[in-house]
Amino acid sequence: MFTLVADLMTGCGMRNGEAAAVNLNNVVADDVYRIAEQVNQTTREYGRLKHRKASEYRDVPLPASGRHTIEQYADTHGTIDGYLLRHPTDPAKTFPYYAIHNQWRRIKKAGEVEIPKGMVIFGFRHFFASNCLTHNIPITDVAEWMGHRSVDITFKVYRHLMPGSIGRAAKVLDVDLAS
Known about the structure:
The protein has 179 residues and is mainly alpha-helical.
């Protein structure tokens, strides 16, 4: 379960509640996942996405490894109406958001994997954004995929990952102005 959530957060930029609502039917292409709902922490029901109306969704990149994890999890554990993650004691209920945090605490406590001090689950989502931006994916695309209300939020949080743009611009301008 934890590998699935981690792959969705690092590969697709999902929030915890969005990963908890992962649905096999939302794989809309080999490399696209449609985030259409999330598990609401308060109601513990499927609900609209943050900063979106009920009928709105986000299409995000789906790396082959993420698609493989989704398919493998579905083959191993099955689905209910396409949903992969359900409540551990009552499959009629949504997957509880706290189960991800409980699993994370168990992983950290076991000490079998080196986890940097201070790293939290949300760090997987930050990895997604950082990885995209350091590989020159446009910040506007990253903001949309992450579901930020505006690109300003993405810019404020991740601007430090785009160093050197001023220096690159100066070099481009030097060349163009010299011609």
